[in-house]
Amino acid sequence: MSGKAFKLGIMGGTFNPIHQGHLVAAEFIRDEFNLDEVLFVPSGKPPHKDSNEIAPPEHRWMMTVLATASNEHFSVSSLEIERVGESYTRETILQLKKIYPENTECYFITGADAIAEISTWHKTEDLSQITKFIAASRPGYKLDIKSIDSRFQECTYLIEIPALTISSTEIRKRIKEKRTIKYLLPEAVEKYISKNKLYG
User: Fold this and answer.
1) Distance of alpha carbon 134 from alpha carbon 33, whole angstroms
2) Which of 78, 103, 111, 180 is the most buried (most CB within 10 A)?
3) pLDDT, tens digit (0-9, with 9 covering 90-100), for 136-191
4) Which helix (H) or strand (E) holds 12?
5) Cα separation, 182 vs 191, whole angstroms
6) Rounded to 10 degrees, what is the CA torsion of 26, 31, 33, 34?
7) Structurally, what CATH architecture does the domain formed by 6-164 represent?
8) What is the β-pairing status of strands 104-111 and 156-160?
9) How far is CA 96 from the centre of its chain?
10) How much is the pLDDT for 1?
11) Where is 157: in which H helix or E strand?
């Protein structure tokens, strides 16, 4: 397949639960980088997270599907959820490269706090060759590109997203305390959490 490259944004995350900050960040980045598609990839068993706090993968996948359904440029992959064992970025990107056309350019979208720890990620030797990185930060969080692993400085773009002051941790806390979460996440996701009694 020749011609213009297909620009794929890959938004990995626990999405525990997905919220407006994730959606605003994805749309803002899609527009800014002229991406053809943003693929949300809920992690199956994230190696860096405490699994006690995490809703079952099928629930997180379904909430992501509900949250992204109205945007024609968004899609959701169950790739990491179906994979046995822990979820690693490198495996996911290599798997997606087999699914998408040969001329696909991958942009892995993550948080600035996560990119700051990229040297602790699993099997990073060739990561900078297979994808570019877009690191989204919330206002006030300043990441100096020179402070990240030198192998990734050339292929990482930093972008500030105003809506990222919303966090999944805060939403889970509010649910436990029986406080409102309205407008922090899509209405369909709020209803799904309530119906399935998640995070209570």
Assistant:
1) 9
2) 111
3) 988 778 788 888 999 999 999 999 887 778 889 999 999 999 999 999 999 999 99
4) strand 6-13
5) 10
6) 120
7) 3-Layer(aba) Sandwich (3.40)
8) unpaired
9) 15
10) 45
11) strand 156-160
What's the CA gap between 186 and 26, in Å, rounded?
Answer: 14
The pTM score is 0.92
pLDDT of residue 77: 97
Alpha helices in 69-178 (DSSP H): 79-82, 89-99, 112-115, 127-130, 168-176
pLDDT tens for each residue of 9-29: 999 999 999 999 999 999 999
Of 84 and 7, the one with more pLDDT: 7
What amino acid occupies position 113? D
Asked if residue 47 has a cis previous peptide bond (ω within 30° of 0), the answer is no
Residues whose CB is less than 8 angstroms from the CB of residue 21 and which lie 6 or more positions away in sequence, other chains included: 161, 163, 164, 165, 166, 167
Rounded to an integer, what distance in angstroms lies between the CA atom of residue 35 and that of residue 29? 8
The long-range contacts involving 180-184, CB below 8 angstroms and separated by at least 24 positions, are: 183/20, 184/19, 184/20
Q: What is the dihedral of CA 41, 47, 51, 57, to 10 degrees?
A: 20
Instruction: Please report which helix (H) or strand (E) contains residue 158, including its range.
Output: strand 156-160
> Distance between CA 145 and CA 183 in Å, rounded?
33
